[in-house]
Amino acid sequence: MMNKTVQNLRVLSNIQLNRDHHLLELQAPVKLEQIAPGQFVNVRVEKSQSTFLRRPFSIYGVDYEKNTISLFIKDVGPGSHVLTSTPEGEEVDVVFPLGNGFSYPEENERILLVGGGFGIAPLLFFARELKKRNLDVHIHALVGARTSDDLMELNSFAQCGEVYSTTEDGSHGVKGRVTDHPALKDRLQKFDRVYSCGPEPMMEAVAAKAAAVDVFCEVSLENTMACGFGVCLCCVTDTTSGHQCVCTDGPVFNIKDLKW
Amino acid sequence: MVDLGVKIGNLDLKNPVMTASGTFGYGLEFEDFFDLNRLGGFVVKGTTLHARQGNPYPRSAETPSGMLNAVGLQNRGVKYFAENIYPRLEKFQTNVLVNVSGSTVEEYVECAEVINELEHIPGIELNISCPNVKEGGMTFGTSCPSAEAVVRAVRKVYDKHLMVKLSPNVTSIEEIARAVENVGADSVSLINTLLAMAIDAESRKPLLSTITGGLSGPAVKPVALRMVWQVAQAVKIPIVGMGGIMNAADAVEFMLAGASAIQVGTAGFVDPLAPVKIVEGIEDYLKRHKIESVTDLVGSLQL
Ligand SMILES: Cc1cc2nc3c(=O)[nH]c(=O)nc-3n(C[C@H](O)[C@H](O)[C@H](O)COP(=O)(O)O)c2cc1C
Ligand code: FES
Question: Average per-residue pLDDT in chain B?
Answer without folding.
Answer: 96
